[in-house]
Amino acid sequence: MIIVTAASGQLGRLVIAELLQRVPAERIVAAVRDPGKVADLADQGVLVRHADYTDPAALDAAFEGASKVLLISSNDLGNRVPQHRNVIDAAARAKVGLLAYTSVLHADRSTLGLAAEHRATEDAVRASGLPYSLLRNGWYVENYTVSLGGAVAHGALAGGAGEGRIAAAARADYAAAAAVVLAGEGPKQQVYELAGDTAFTLAELAAEVSRQTGKPIPFHNLAQQEYAELLVNVGLPKPLAELIADADAQAAKGALFDDRRALSQLIGRPTVTLAAAVRAALN
């Protein structure tokens, strides 16, 4: 059986949707903290099991009979490494045939502040002795498009990435890659560096929004601290605001760029275009 952790989340649901196109539903397990949130998956024949990254006993029960496990990284910043180790240890006790982990692009050399927890998790995955695949996901284009409504309303797009080119892809693109690896359809690799086919600057994103809306939407580049303060002022928790501002600052230095097109090669189709991503966000 293929276990997908955090299956009620945005990425987890998309992974399961992709898996349902590749393997029978009864071979898929949605491992979630709240089974009630995935009743719709159970209705499709997916097995639903309770699992909590902080509860080793629950993880052992959830992983019973597992052949493959996808560990989707926790969103509990600062506490992710011990949580991930619990999942890795449970997968090792279950003696799974493949442990896949959603890491970050170029994790081994990334300057992103969030990369440290991913590197530590990757080390734990390797130390487990299990066959593994590290899905080093680039930036989700939704990280930017989710705020486009506000940018249009305020007549400007703010950020801190300067002229840095960002090879973002849609969450659905990364979900498809995970499903291909879990279903055994792709090349067997230990590390996949995954990013969008075409990189863009935030000024180019703003220009595309302007084109589609017919309104002038300039890009305002802010210093890292100024951008973090802006994000706090619009309601984001300070740790998350600082993480986003750091990501933009590192993107300005190339941390979110990759031009090898490994993602589209793996999933057998182009990744989402900037125009399509903006259109989906505005409609």
Structure description:
This protein is α/β, with parallel strands linked by helices and 283 residues long. It has 2 domains: 2-137, Rossmann fold (3-Layer(aba) Sandwich); 139-168 and 196-258 and 269-283, UDP-galactose 4-epimerase, domain 1. The chain is built from 13 helices and 9 strands. Strands 3-2-1-4-5-6-8 form a 7-stranded parallel β-sheet, sandwiched between helices. A two-stranded parallel ribbon has the order 7-9. Strand 1, helix 1 and strand 2 form a beta-alpha-beta unit. Helix 9 crosses helix 13. The longest helix has 15 residues, at 80-94. It is globular. The model has no long low-confidence stretch (mean pLDDT 96).
Quick structural summary:
The protein contains 13 helices and nine strands. It has 283 residues and is an alpha/beta fold.
